[in-house]
Amino acid sequence: MKRFFLGMAAKYGALRQTARHTFCHGRESDIKELKKYLGERYSGEAITCKNGRSGLALALRAFFKRGEKVLVNGFTCYAVYEGIQAAGLIPVFVDISQEDLNFDYQALEKAAKESQASGIIIQNSLGNPVDIERIESLAKKYHLTIIEDLAHSAGVKYGDGREAGTVGAAVAFSFGKDKSVDTVNGGAVVFREEMKRKVEMPHERARVSDTLRARFYPMLAGLCRGLTAIHLGGILMRLLVKIHWVEKSADNHLDTTRQISRFEARLALEQFRGFREAGERPIREFVLVREREKVLEMLKKAGYYFDSIWYKKPVAPERYYKKVHFNEAECPSSVYIAEHIINLPTYYSRGDLKRAREIIKPYIINEGKNGKVE
Ligand SMILES: *Cc1c(COP(=O)(O)O)cnc(C)c1O
Predict the structure, then answer these.
(1) Residue 296 falls inside a structural domain
(2) Average pLDDT across the chain, whole number
(3) Based on the structure, what is the number of domains in the chain?
(4) DSSP assigned state of 361
(5) Is 77 helix (H, G, I), strand (E, B) or coil?
(6) Which residues have C-beta atoms less than 6 Å from ligand 1?
(7) Helix 208-227 crosses helix 262-274 at what angle (to 10 degrees)?
(8) Mode of pairing for the β-strands spanning 187-191 and 45-49
(9) What would the mean pLDDT of 229-247 be, rounded to a whole number?
């Protein structure tokens, strides 16, 4: 029974949050208010949209011509690739560092010099800020337009004190599952500089089916996590995916014509306002481990639902990896990290994760900047 509740992460806070999500009522004015808030906070013109990848596509369309190249973190999710592709651009994946999962700056300089890219997408992986001054000077030297992707890092501060999202020509947000602002779906863009191209903006309402799925996801996911204790969680989750009650994050379609759901706009606004100060948001921890499959198996036995390790390939999930035509020889470190990383899910509290940390500890190869497995 204890494991059931551990799985459900049924602390008072988590239950309350799930109830708030499920029963939140949103109005058209919440979308307007969210836009206003983002526009002010990030000094630009804000629009909201269906998800992060659609937002990224809109940002890229506004600043680049089809066929141009953009430098991208060599460790990312398929959503980013989809956004780049929808804008007709060519991604140049750059190798990353084990410390913070951000660009390896030598590899970045080399790529900037050799690829003739016209832009760079900053990811601030898992909430670790990039060395922004270094990137800005590189961007200046090689004439790169900076786009910030804040899916992992809304509220985070760069080393020089500026907030993430206050540097690039445009800033894309994802409010998807496990992102720093999580309303299950939803996205936004803030255009901070004058757009170079005219872009058609989202004008259609969110689909009812998408809204319903987003609304019930936290409840269903909590139930599944709880049921892993009696080995039924995985089965139920697979069933829910099959009957389309739950959509895997990677399968969420890019659609730049659709709006965010109204209740998601309301929740996103609440979460943004809840950041008391920049950088306060919980950052997902990661560690690199030996024998990852074995460690995951042990975690499962201890009642943890840890399947969302996020990355098995440099561009996750694995089932879409082939489509990306990732050049592994250019990004050896990204490949290595993808094979050894474990992310500590944010749906458990620090206390809940104590046992998990003990299990992981003997297998650690490297703890990243934010991987503090005590
Ligand atoms: C998840 C993610 C996105 C966008 O995801 P959506 O599912 O389209 O909202 C963008 N960038 C990064 C780095 C992400 O991890």
Answers:
(1) yes
(2) 91
(3) 1
(4) G
(5) strand
(6) 51-53, 76-77, 79-80, 123, 149, 151-152, 174, 176, 179, 187, 249, 252
(7) 60
(8) antiparallel
(9) 90
